[in-house]
Structure formats: C-alpha cells, structure tokens
C-alpha cells in the first residue's frame, strides 16, 4: 500500500507501507500508481517526495510473488510514469533501496539518502537482472564500468559511495524525509529534462567491444555456470549500444529467460532458506521463539591452532572479550601474532577500531574461569578432549556453556565427562573460521534448548549462517561428505583420474573438485580419522574392510608422505610445498595404473555424468538418511550447510533442492542402478525416506516435512 499526504503546503508525500521492508507487492504498486496519479493531477501539489515507512525506503520487488502469477500494475510503466511527471519527484532513501526499490528511485528526478542507507541492485544474487529499467538507467547515470560492477556483483553500497558514483544527489545524517521535502520545495519550477535518466545518452567507452569481451570472460569464469551474471553483462551492453527503448526491450527479453529458469528458483530458495534456518527447532519440540539466549560478553578459546585462531578473531570482531589458551609456548606466540595481524588488517579494511585489545592470552587453563562460554579447538583426539572437558567442568562457573569445535566426535560423550551435560553443545566452525559463513550448532540428547539458543545467537552476532543440527558422526556436513569422497576414490579404482573427477565436479559448479580440495585440507586429516576408526592396515591393499568396499588409495599416498599442498605432492603435484597451483602428476597416473593391475581391476572410460551422479547422489542419499533420523530439521538446513560451508553452487540451491529439481524418481532410479553395479557399497542403497517421498508422489521440497513426520507404518 501507499499513502499520499500533503506536507509543507505543496509537497505530496507518498509513503510506501508494506512491512517489514516495503517490498513492491501488487498492493504497493497499485498504491504508487494511484497516489502518483492523484499527486500529479492535484493543483495544490507542486512537487512529490516518495519515502518508505519505518525507516526503510524499499527492499525491491516482493520476492514471494515470483513463484505465482503476477497481478497488479507492472513496475516498468509505473516507473516511467514517475519519470514522465511534470512535477519534480524526489526519493527519500532511508534503510535500504535495493533492486526494484533502487529502480523506483532511479525513476525519480532526485535522490536524497540518509548516511546509513544501503543501496544496490542485488537481482543477480536472486538469478535475475534489474529488469525495471535498472540495467538501462544506471549505466546512463554512472557510466558503464561502475554500473557493470554493481549489477554483476549485486553488492550493496553505502550512501557515501552512491554519492561518489553519482546516483545519489545528497546525503544527510538528519531526518531524510524532512531533507527531501525541503529539497523538493527548492527545485519547483526547474527544468526536469536533464533529470529524466532514460532520456540521457549512455556514456559509451571508447572500445566498447573489447571492454565487454573482457568483462564477459571474467564474469563467465567467476560465475561457475550461473547464467544471471552473464545476462546482466548483456543487458548493460544493450544500454551502451542501443537506444533506450530497444535497450529496455532487450532487458525484458533477458529477464523473461532468467525469470522462469531453475537457477532463479534455486537462488530465491536460498534467500528464504538462509533466513529460515535461524528459526531452529529440536526434535523435543524446543524452538527458537520459545528459548531466550543467555547474554555472553566473555568468551574463551582453547587451542590456538588453525581453527582456534580464526574463532578468536571472529569472537573478538563481534565485540566479545576473549581469552585464548594454548599449552605450547611456540604455538601461543605464533597464534598471538596471527590473531593480532588478522584483527589489525580487518580493522584497516573496514575503517573501524581494531579489536586487538579485546584478546588476552594464557598458557593456563585456569584463565577461562570467568568466561560465559568456552570453545575448545584442540587436536581431534577423544582422550584429550575428554580430559579437557573434565577439567573445564570443575574450573568454569556452573552456568558456563562448554562448546567443542570437533569435526566429528560424539558431543554426547563429551557432555557426559562434565557435571553439566545440558550446558554442552558443538560449535562447528569451518576453516578459515573468521571468514567462512557457516556454523553448525550441534545439540546432543541432553543439551538444553537455552544452550542451543545461546550458541545460535552468538553465531548471528559473528555474522554466521548458523544451523542447528543433531549429534551423529560428522554431524550433517562431514557425514554427507564421506560417501562423496569414497565414491570419488572408487571412481579412481575403476579408471578415472583425479583430473577427470575434479573437472566433472567443477563443471557442476564447485570451486574445487574433491581431489584438489583434499590436497588443500591435507590428506593426513582423513588418514588420522580412518586410523582411529580402525580402517587403516599399513601396507595392505585389501579392498574390503569392516564388511564393505574400501579404497586404500588415500592411505597408500599418505604412507608415501604425500599429504597434499603442504608437502608439495598429493593427488596432484605442486611446484613447492605450500604452493597452490595443482599440476597433473605422471607419477600418480602410473601409480594408479599399477594399483589397478595389482588389484585385477579393468580400467574403463568414465564420463562426467557418471562422476556427478555417483558422487552427488551418494551425498544426497546420505542427506535423506539425515532427514529421516531428524538430525536436520528440514532440507533447507542441509542445503544452507552445503551452500555456506562446502562450496555447493548457490545457483543449484543445495543438494536437497538439486535432488528436487532433478526429480526424486530419477535420483532413486540412478541410485538403484549404481547399487546393482556395486552391491558392496552401502551408501548407494537408496534411503528409505527417498523411497517414501517417491511413493508419496514426490511432493515439492517445501512439503517434504509432512512425509518425514508421517510414521513409516502409514505407507
Ligand atoms: C518479468 C517479471 C518482471 C519483474 C521485475 C522485477 C525486477 C525487480 O525489481 C527485481 C527485484 O527487485 S528482486 C528483489 C531485490 N531485492 C533484494 O534482493 C533485497 C532483499 N532483501 C534484503 O537484502 C534484506 O532483506 C534487507 C537488506 C532489505 C533487510 O535486511 P534485514 O536483515 O533487516 O531483514 P531480513 O531478515 O533480510 O528480512 C526481513 C523479512 O523480510 C523478507 N524480505 C526481505 N526482502 C524481501 C523482498 N524483496 N521480498 C519479499 N520479502 C522480503 C525476508 O524474507 C524476511 O522475512 P522472513 O523470510 O519471513 O524472515
Ligand atoms: N582444520 C580444520 O579445517 C577444521 C578443524 N576442526 C576441528 O577443530 C579442532 C582443532 O583443529 P585444528 O585447529 O585444525 O588443529 P591444530 O592442530 O591446528 O591446533 C590444535 C591446537 O591445540 C593445541 N592444544 C592441544 N592440546 C591443548 C590443551 N590441552 N590446551 C590448550 N591447547 C592445546 C595445540 O598445541 C594446537 O596449537 C579439531 O577438533 C578439528 O577436528 C573443525 C573444523 C575444521
């Protein structure tokens, strides 16, 4: 909705009213068309100001409408009518002017912004382009290179940057609506010709072809298969090379293709899922809206290795006072230097005071005594962690939350080492912990809902996407990764190379294939885990262990000291230890051939489709098991874990959303096919939840929970 009132005698003030972000729903568009018509025809109104209620100008088109048939007045003619008005129209921007919201503002003749407002055209992040004239107006106003940057990345800019770039006319730190009204009064009677952006020529760069070719190449490379960034470049090119009307036509054509694409659906699903996962629930019925988090101002981190350093930085940047405890003097010194450097660099980059003073360091565990929350990040060794939790239980105050960053160990077992099992949760960060957006908050059967609420709230404070999950080996992310990695190894045994497997996965959209990824994280990490699980038999080549198919290839590499990037050799060859560029390794290829010969395996040609299906469907299948066991509350939780923690391409929506797009019957049929070929691989055995979903008619993903909750006997 939108309301019109007369202020300061002659200014028509149009207020958008659609909480929480004044999105341009059909009702709001109808309201704008109606109030504009009344303002233009009312002789008392000599100028117009458009603003949004509750300190937000407009969050753009109403994304919830995209899935249904659009009704109400379309945006493009609505914005044209504003631009064509013969009375000056001023946008008063507070909070956000994003997507269609900024396009609406670009249709106005002037834009006044509050200093704290954020502006941008983020459509690309939703699989779309700014198709209400944004792709044609913005380059006309700020030039092609700057418009390309904003439109292809979707980044939000501050009011100060918008002023510098030239798409805001004035920035105020006072009352924006009042400033806009004064401004509107001052421009009455001035010519509006030069203020109608669509009538301006687009400043065309000298070598337009070379510019767009270069940009297109860069965008294609970073898009990893996403189509919207490419369409955004094409739309801006139309602005630079065609008259406005034809450019608009091109914008509409490109939008029509994007609008109905699976990628746009996937990205919009991600938008809502990212927000939905914060509304967590536990199988006990405890929920986000019934549990209040405890205030946390003092935190402690134990172990200043790879993870402890990043966690310390993330906590300090969130404004907590942190004590970091490390037993090894060398590590303590190196860790302190690394943490301080990271904090200083971040402060410089963001132009904020450094949080270095907020961190204390100690070699004594006693230093954590007054913390409200402790996060343990010592070696992945159960005996060590058991001992530590016993000590923490007696050192810390009774209501202190005890958290572990373990990758896969049993949270419940750790909780049982303490006198306060209800105060123990997992806070599973991803490396580098101060950068990666994902946090898995792991609750055991005895974790108190308030402990989960507190960890989730702290995750939010650190700017993380936090997902609450149940306790099991590897939790959600790492548990699903196991069959994915195993399938990749089996494919090597059957004739693939690390290059062919990685190529297929990168073609799918992962930033790195599984073998390049393993080289980066270190092959020794998984080796240690397999040793602890009793799977490693040094020097032995047997391919069945603990009653199921096993590939010893990773172990054989580790036995040769090939740990990946850090040793200069792994699945690939590196120039020097630590260097990043992976090169194919002829030694590895002969090693694989010899291995197959000794095992009596006949090498065959394996194509991308088989690589993708076997690795991804095995991972997805484990996702169904996880849903079935209520380890994750819904498919959105799994999908956000994979998008934010494991590089799953966002335009494919996450593994479970991808399965729904491929079609559940198809996923089931391919799993059955591979299971018949490899009956000794349990993770190819289709999950019973997948069966149930298919026999329930493969409902859309937002209705899976109904099937998950149904008792099995109901079928
Ligand atoms: C051929 C067809 C032609 C069609 C032409 C259409 C062309 C277009 O013009 C295309 C577009 O505009 S696409 C929309 C572009 N706008 C955006 O991407 C902004 C999205 N919103 C934000 O970034 C933040 O919510 C924001 C920064 C605004 C606020 O952040 P906060 O952290 O304060 O709040 P959130 O928790 O993010 O949001 C609060 C609730 O509002 C929901 N919401 C936000 N933006 C929305 C939007 N644009 N549409 C619908 N719902 C929206 C949000 O989902 C959340 O609700 P819950 O999910 O229930 O929590
Ligand atoms: N490295 C990774 O990518 C990830 C690791 N994790 C988990 O985080 C934990 C830590 O892993 P990393 O940081 O990689 O290990 P790391 O080996 O880099 O660091 C562990 C640190 O803990 C210190 N330490 C050992 N015992 C201690 C004690 N009793 N008191 C204080 N400090 C002690 C060690 O001296 C070392 O500096 C493990 O549980 C691991 O599974 C979780 C997510 C990702």
Automatic annotation (TrEMBL):
Q: Which GO terms describe its molecular function?
A: (3S)-3-hydroxyacyl-CoA dehydrogenase (NAD+) activity; delta(3)-delta(2)-enoyl-CoA isomerase activity; enoyl-CoA hydratase activity; NAD+ binding
Which InterPro entries does this UniProt record tie to the protein?
A: 3-OHacyl-CoA_DH_CS, 3-OHacyl-CoA_DH_NAD-bd, 3HC_DH_C, 6-PGluconate_DH-like_C_sf, ClpP/crotonase-like_dom_sf, Enoyl-CoA_hyd/isom_CS, Enoyl-CoA_hydra/iso, NAD(P)-bd_dom_sf
Q: Name one GO biological process term.
A: fatty acid beta-oxidation
Read off the SUPFAM superfamilies from this record: 6-phosphogluconate dehydrogenase C-terminal domain-like (SSF48179), ClpP/crotonase (SSF52096), NAD(P)-binding Rossmann-fold domains (SSF51735)
Any idea of its EC number?
A: 1.1.1.35, 4.2.1.17, 5.3.3.8
Q: Does the keyword Hydrolase apply?
A: no
Q: Which GO terms describe its cellular component?
A: peroxisome
Q: For the 3-hydroxyacyl-CoA dehydrogenase C-terminal domain, which residue ranges apply?
A: 474-574, 613-697
Q: In which pathway does it act?
A: Lipid metabolism; fatty acid beta-oxidation
Q: Which reaction does it catalyse?
A: (3S)-hydroxydecanoyl-CoA = (2E)-decenoyl-CoA + H2O; (3S)-hydroxyhexadecanoyl-CoA = (2E)-hexadecenoyl-CoA + H2O; (3S)-hydroxyhexanoyl-CoA = (2E)-hexenoyl-CoA + H2O; (3E)-hexenoyl-CoA = (2E)-hexenoyl-CoA
Instruction: Output the superkingdom of the source species.
Output: Eukaryota
Q: Which residues form the 3-hydroxyacyl-CoA dehydrogenase NAD binding domain?
A: 298-471
Family under the similarity heading = Belongs to the enoyl-CoA hydratase/isomerase family.
The record's note on quaternary structure and interaction partners says: Monomer.
According to UniProt, the name of this protein is Peroxisomal bifunctional enzyme
Per the UniProt record, the source organism is Neogobius melanostomus
